[in-house]
Amino acid sequence: MSRVAVLKGGRSLERQISLKSGARVQDALERLGHDVVGIDVGHDLVGRLREAAPEVAFVALHGRDGEDGTVQELLEAAGIPYTGSGVSACIRCADKVLAKHHMRDAGIPTPDFFAFNETAFKELGAADALPAIQERLGFPVVVKPSNQGSALGMKMARGPEEVPGALVAAFSYGDKVLLERHVDGRDLAVSILDRAEGGRPLVLPVVEATPHEDDRYEARYEIGRTEFVCPAALTDELTQRAQDLALQVWELLGCAGFGRIDLMLDRFDDELYVLEANAIPGLTDTSLFPQAADAAGIGFDELIGRVVELAL
Asked: Would the pTM of this model clear 0.85, i.e. be above it?
């Protein structure tokens, strides 16, 4: 058994979700017999890692500093192996705009979009281009910050009058905003787990999330507000397409260890569109990655054990 530091919490806006993920991971590792040190990440992280002297770090951080390559860079500098994707893949996944450009350049279907930073609006007159952008994308349009997860700052603008408020909300969470064509369809997630022996990663069963509430994004994080179906009720052909597409994105962005790709299935023509890639998916009671693993016959403790084994 190994000495494992579980990095959780942090100072991002996704702190509470990270604490839940980290607590579950810590409990699983202790049941597996590992020597576990939980670290609520803050300004003293490097000192606490030096004191704990772990053989491996389990990164259960979400949002800024955890998913964007920052803590991964620190762990590499300290010579500590860690779970999940490396620095460059985390950077690509964390920036939704960067990831979508990579996908579009590679011919991977992702909803049409435009992205602007604050400078474009304040100094380059981007607001005057909004009518043309809205005509290109149509309504409703999804407005969201480029580098936040857990649906933070995400708004649906159903008409031109709702766009300014949605932009203000998104800019309150970051300095770059994404305007994306809304795909009316089914919310799917495909999780992927590397194999310790190498070879093709294990693509887990597809999960479909159907929120009961109007706010489909926030509802996912509270028990009872969303119905999850795994495996999703799809034809074999659609399931294969979704899994193949997710694996394409995983390989394109350079992901490793474990991760989750979010897609939309257009309800009118059964076309699949990739929304984003999550280098550090949630591990809470309602998170999709553990549900997919369970449907594949991999219990939570075994899943966490495999992720640590991959890091080592």
From this structure: yes
